[in-house]
Task: structure prediction
Amino acid sequence: MKPDPRATILSRRRFLTLSGQGALLAGGLALSAGAWLPRWALAEPDLASRLLRMGRDIYPHEAIADRYYLEPLQPLLEEQREMIDAGLAALDRRARATHGRDYVAIEDERERVALLREIEDGEFFQSVRNTLVVGLYDNPELWEPHFGYEGSSWEKGGYLNRGFNDLVIDWL
Amino acid sequence: MSGKFSHDDDSVVVIVGSGAGGGTLAHALAKRGINSVVLEAGKRYRMEDIENDEWEMFKKISWLDERITAGPRQLTETFPNLPAWIVKGVGGSTIHWAGVALRFQPHEFRLHSEAGDIAGANLLDWPISYEELEPYYVQAERHMGVTGESTGMPYHQWNNNFKVLAEGAKRVGYQKLRAGPMAINTQAYDDRPQCMQAGFCMQGCRFGAKWSTMYTDIPRAEASGHCEVRPNAMALQIEHDANGRATGVVYADGEGNLQRQKARVVCVAGNSIESPRLLLNSHSSLFPDGLANSSGQVGRNYMTHATACVFGVMPKPVHMHRGTTFAGIISDEARLDRSRGFVGGYTLEVMSLGVPFFAKFMDPSNGGWGRDITSALDKYDHLSGVWICGEDLPMEDNGITLHDTRKDQYGLPVPIVYKGDHPNDEVLRRHGQAQATKCYEAVGAERTFLVPDFPTSHNVGTNRMSARAADGVVNKWGQTHDIDNLFVSDGSQFTTSGAENPTLTIVALALRQAEHIAERMQRREL
Result:
């Protein structure tokens, strides 16, 4: 999916005006300003940073760009915005109580993960997680480059002549 | 050309379901000139509808009507409304099955005699022997195009996934390693092409190389003029007369209108959740506990196979997604050998999942996230996987019941699918997990991990066969003990689960049942 460049520039300008705020999140994760981010993330960089941090703690893949975590969350935000806001607020309250700072500002991954473990049985956490387990891993753009999964094959004649049995076990 | 039988035509056999049981039966009856109406709850798919896309096909063909998963098992939490992964569509779960076509072993038909009483298990011998079923296994193998002796088709070449597992298995000392038998063509057979090793067997075979009633038995039965398939026809109730003989089936058509198809014989083949559900929903003043339920066994003894998966991360890319999904079988542990600490055996079957399903199924529990998960996913192309298909002991309380108040879109009570493990199942599963892990370690896995069972595709036992009417629902022909002209034609007939995938046995039983029904009809006994 190619983003509309005009919209992106406008939105990025808006994002840049807000990015001082983003920089304050440095302990956590600044949004990657150069990448193609979904509009909602550009419009609400603070929300995006918090959800991105959470998504990357749930399914950490350093090599996968921000937008792949953020794009699939849009329908969830549209349908359950209140639940998400409340969930993030509660996560921050929990973070401030134990670490004296917001969740995204906690630098140690293990400490953030421990906080998430405390809420993993809740609706908020599982909504984000279940959205990402499909949104992140059912994205054909990531399959081959990141996972080495080749996706649909019938239109290429399957793998009969394309390596279904090409493995040589030479490591033993 | 499709036959068109009137709703009042009471000379037809009405078959509920069009999968391995119902589709096979309709075709086999048609070949004998016997007319049938097949009521299929799902829609009709075309070959062009079949995509190599796990989630798209899951959404498209799965049976997603409300069901309640219950019992002390992880699925109750992880898939509370999806106890079973089966298909709603013309062709039923033969669209989704992976093609493994193993016969049951002779001793598995008489497990009770072999093993004796086992506390907590409702164990019973089948009323038929392997020897009685053997000729129908041969017929079924020829009918479906199963690689091996019956057809002369060679087994598949070993794909990468199986090469890895087999190398480890050899080093562990296993000897019964085979890339078959599979009902997946290795050569053109029966007007269907050879397998292209595309993968995605469980999403439906786009080429038609894997046997499915969707593009074999069903269209052929229809072409004979002796069969009419009605898609989008959800059977609601089997009716009977004052003498307790089945007279027809009431169903909801695609527009939601109620229809009544009269019948000479009714055959139920809606898989092991819907088949007992239909019998239970057909209760009447004459049969207050449901049809064919004088034994009280309708809906009981639900078995799914004792299962789990083990995956290994190998030192180099394997590309397990290339080639057939279940590409090879190890049968060394399928024997009956109580020295292992459990009754029954298990088959190890190499399997693959794509990235979307692997991510979903690797650990669907609430805690299944974090670097443990993603570090395996980052090595997706290095993975090899194996599925354990183990004997699942029948327990009387495992089964299908009807919810008191919740109704589905047809107004029928929602089924509750309750399943707990017998202690034997747990010991067997752990043994299988340990052995599979050893195989992967022996072939140099850098890491191995267990994957829990997912919503089951092997659902059997809920209208079981028995010699005595008090012990089960149907006799050795699948005919209900209580009602002469009411048959069960799917895997719900199974008395025990065996250590093998159920489809071949369902087809063999359906072919045998068709012959029996035809003979009985000829003798005017039906």
About this structure: Chain B has a mean pLDDT of 97. Chain B touches chain A through 48 residues (CB under 8 Å).
